[in-house]
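Continued from yesterday's entry.
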Amino acid sequence: MDRRISLHERVQAVDRLQEMAFEANQIASWLAEHDLETEADKTELAAVHLLAVVALLERPIRPQLPPGRWQR
C-alpha cells in the first residue's frame, strides 16, 4: 500500500524531532551536573544530530508551508 505522508504530517514529524533534540539537550545538561560527562557528551551529540536531521528535512517542506504554522 502506497501511503504518502501529508505536508501536515511532515511538519508535525519535524516539530517532534526538534522537541526531542531540545529534551536530549536538557538531559545532557542534567547528566553533566551529576558528573556523568561521557553520557552527557553522547546525549548532547545526539541532540546535535537530531537538529541536523531537522534542518535537512525542513528544507524541502519550508516553501510549501502555509502563511501560519499549524497549531497543536
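--- second protein ---
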Amino acid sequence: MPIAAEPWPGAPCARLAPMRARLTAIFLTVATALLALAPAALGADGEGLYGRTDDKVITFFAFGVIAFFAILVTVLSLLQIRLDNRKDRRTQDLKRLGS
C-alpha cells in the first residue's frame, strides 16, 4: 500500500478543521449572547458603570483619548527608530564580515 503524502508542504492537519469550526461556532455564539445581554446588564435608568455622565466627564474622557493616542504614537515611533537602528547595525556587520 502506498503511503499518502501531504497535499503540499506545510498543509494543516485534516483533524484540525472540524475543531476549528466548532471553536468558531462556540466563540460566535458566546459573543452574540454577551452582546445581546450587555444593555440589560450595564444600563439602569440611563446610568452605566461610571454613573451619570455630564459634559465635564465627556470632556475629560475625550482628553484622555487624545493623550492615549499621542503617547501611543510617540512610543511606537521610538520603537520603530530603535528597530531601524538595529537593522542598520546588522546590515553593516554583514557587509563588514563579507557575507
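The radius of gyration is 26 Å. The longest helix spans residues 55-97. Will compare against the first tomorrow.
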